[in-house]
Each structure stands twice: as C-alpha cells, then as structure tokens.
Amino acid sequence: MTTSFKFSFTIEILCLALCSLTLSCHAFTSMDYSTALEKSILFFEGQRSGKLPPDQRLTWRGDSGLSDGSSYHVDLTGGYYDAGDNVKFGLPMAFTTTLLAWSVIEFGDEMGSQIEHARAAIRWGSDYLLKAATATPGTLYVQVADPNMDHKCWERPEDMDTPRNVYKVSTQSPGSDVAAETAAALAAASIVFKNSDPSYSRKLLQTAMKVFDFADRYRGSYSDSLNSVVCPFYCSYSGYQDELLWGASWIHRASQNTSYLDYIKSNGHTMGAYDDNYSFSWDDKRPGTKVLLSKDFFEKKTLEFQPYKSHSDNYICSLIPGTSSFQAQYTPGGLLYKGSASNLQYVTSSALLLLTYAKYLNLNGGVATCGSSTITAEKLISQAKKQVDYILGDNPAKMSYMVGFGERFPQHVHHRGSSVPSIHAHPTRIPCNDGFHYLDSSSPNPNVLVGAIVGGPDSRDNFADDRNNYQQSEPATYINAPFVGAVAYFAAKPN
Question: Which InterPro entries does the record associate with it (predicted)?
C-alpha cells in the first residue's frame, strides 16, 4: 500500500466517522429542495374538499362534501380537511392560508415554476374563507362536521355519511380568535394576489377588514362558544388577544391604513406582543406577530417598533444553542422538539420565522442581539437548514418525514383518504366501520399522499411508522404551509 493511498484511505475513514457523529452525511442540492417544494405544495391537493378542478394532480382523490352548508342554506363547499380526518376546522385552515400566503410573500420569487401552484393552494383556502365570512351578516362560519362523530368512522372523504353539521360564531356567540385569524388569512392572501388579480385582492382585503372589526367589536373565545366541537381538537388555549394583534398586523401590512397601525400601537403591550413566548403555532401567534412587525422597525426606523425587534431577537435567540437566551429543546439528532403530538408543526413554523427574520436582517444590515452577543443572519439560515434537512432525511433514522420524498419515507400514514382504496380502485362505497380494517392493516397506504409531512419522531429521534400512532404519523396542512416558504428559500440557493 503506497503512502498516498494509505493517507487517502485514512481520510476517507475519518470522514465516515465524522459523518456518523454529526449526522450530516446527506448534502441536499438545490434540485432536491426544488423537488421538496413541488411536493410540499402538491400535498394540499390531497386535502381538498369540494368539487375538484380539471387540473387536479393527485388523481386518486375525488369530489367530496358537495352539499356542505346546504341544510343551513349556505354554500360552504371547498376548503381543506385539516389533517387525516374529514372535518373542516376554521382556525387551523385560516392559519394554514396565512402561512402559505406569507411563504409566497417572502419567498415567492424563489418558487420558479411552482408559484402558480402555490397561489392555487392559497386560493383554495381563501375562496372558502370568503364564503364563510360573507354568507350571513354578523356571522362567521368556522367549522363543518361534528368531529366526535367523524372520528367514529374511518372512511374516505368521497364516502362521508357522518353529520356535516355547520358551526358559526356571531355577535351573540363570539369567536375573536378564529375571526381574527380569518382576517389575517384574507389580508395576507390579498397581498399575494395584488398584482395577478387586483379585483380579487381588493375583495379579500375589504372582507378582512369587516371580519376583523367583527372579531374586535364582539370579543370572546370560540372555545367558550363551541366548546364541545372545537375542544380538545383546536381549543384556543392562548386566548384571542394574540390573534387580534396578528390580524391587525396583517391588515396593516396589506393596506398601509394608519388606523391599524394606531391599533397596534395602542394594544400591543396588552395583547402579548411584549411577552417572550417561544412557540409559534395555529394557536399562538405572538412570535410570528413580532417578526412580522419587526419589518416596520427595520424599514422605518421608528422607535415605537423597537420592542418588536427586541422581542423577535429574544424568540430567535431562544432557538440558537450556545446563546445566553437559549431555551429550546433538541433531540440528540438535532431536531427542535416541543411536544409529542405533531411536533414537526413547530419545526416548520420556526424555520419559516428564522428565514424570514434573516431576510429582514440581511436587507437592513442588522443582527439579532442575544444578551451580550450578536447572531448574524447566516447563523439563522444555518439553523433553519438543519431543521429542513432533518425533515428531508438527514437524521439518525435516515428517513424522510415527507411522504414521497427520498428513498425511505412513512408508508402507514394516519389519513383516511390515503389509507382506504380510492374510488377508482374500489368504486363501491366503503361504510364507516368497514374502513377500520384499513386503519389496522399492516400494508402500506394504497394512495401515496405525496408531499405530506407527518407529525414526526419523538424526543429521542424514534419514529413509529404506524397508522394508529397519530401523534407521529398524521400529516396536517399547518405542518406543510410554512415548509413551502422554507424549501423555496433553499431551492433558490446554489449548491
């Protein structure tokens, strides 16, 4: 063996050892991220309710929920099923639409040929929210289907025969949280369509303002008004004040109307904007609101927005190991870990905030201040990339947690439509109880829900590819929505 060969062989062994220790063997290319972007948007077609369009690409799905709202004399067809069931929950659907829109607002220029599919995904949500907000004066329809009844069945959406009850909030039974999130979604979507469809954009923004006024004027939590059908599924644990500030912030961004700026200035300190909390989700909007409002500080350098920059720093620094403000928990493999159920929702939402804040810092020559130290935008990008890469397969299990991406991904996804044979393969109806045979089957799902990001591994990086373990194997629209923006960012970067 020559000296040069021995040297190169030794280097190779060292690299393999280092690779196994750091878990960073897999280097994704911009093409990989582009593929992940395409699939992450495609997932939303699998969640569609209503009459499917001719260009539907996930063709194993069919029309469903075509009479939603009809017994109440309103049209509530369309929209999205939130996760693996057949319920249309208004709060997570609105949050999903807001974050899809934010992904496009910040990173749409990086989406290339996928931008039209991204807009279509947003519009499927915003069209439904428009119906829900304008069908009856003084009312916002916030849910279709009784989840307690729906969850007693395992059936594909095309076969649904469980009650499609309709639930609403009103002046007598308020729901400021779901209403203000709906306003945020409509306002954010109005920005997306401002140039491509100005009249639709105006309608979205005008409706957002009306819904926000309703949310603010008639205050209360929808968890109080509709407890038995929204809890424990999507209880508003954080209350409604965070949504009011979030909604006002999005309408301000969309309209530049100074009255919303005044509202933010007057109410920010009482609505949690100055609280240092570290979880951004469908329930708690405070970290997202701070990052959103920090843009005004960077651009206008006005002192009243300084606190939003400071508290955005606190949130960002809480995610960065080694800083004096570090608060987060990570698995041994490096994944942000917040909770046992659908943990990846917190990973994708924090990745979007890290990249958005990094963008704001880069455009304005700023840094995040973590106690006596500073963190650059590059550090935030690096932290976001670790989380994105973990989801795509750079993890101890060497498994992609996005269905259909990579060589190894979940096969037993907790999702009715994906796990039950499609109406094309099995045209006759599969009744409610008969579907449980497919829930308990050891066979892979017959219909691949391409792009779905599941709940993900536990605090020790362990993952059970088991349909009955919904905490780990169930996908959700609000897991994917922020991921669209995150992978778009990396898809546009050179290898």
Answer: 6-hairpin_glycosidase_sf, 6hp_glycosidase-like_sf, Glyco_hydro_9, Glyco_hydro_9_Asp/Glu_AS, Glyco_hydro_9_His_AS
What SS3 class is residue 166? strand
Name residues whose C-beta falls within 8 Å of residue 333's C-beta, 6 or more positions apart in sequence. Answer: 23, 390, 395, 396, 457, 461
Residue for token digits 């700026």? 261
158 as an active site residue: the answer is no
Is the pTM of the predicted complex or chain greater than 0.90? yes
Q: How far apart are CA 93 and CA 121, in angstroms?
A: 12
465 is catalytic: yes
How far is residue 150 CA from its own chain's centroid? 23
Report which of 237, 236, 224, 312 is spatially closest to residue 268, judged by C-alpha positions. 312
Q: Is the pLDDT of residue 275 over 90?
A: no
Walk me through the domains of the chain, giving residue ranges and CATH numbers: 24-491 (1.50.10.10)
Mean per-residue pLDDT of the chain: 93
Strands 166-170 and 139-144: antiparallel
CA Rg, the chain, in Å?
22
Helix (H, G, I), strand (E, B) or coil at 84: coil
Active-site option among 82, 146, 284, 474: 474
- Look up 474 and say whether it is catalytic: yes
Rounded CA-CA distance 156/418 in Å is 8
Task: Quote the CA–CA distance of 345 and 456 in Å, as a whole number.
Answer: 9
Q: Which of 63, 276, 304, 465 is catalytic?
A: 465
State in Å, rounded, how far the first CA of the chain is from the last one.
Answer: 35
With 70 as the cut, is the pLDDT of residue 104 above it? yes
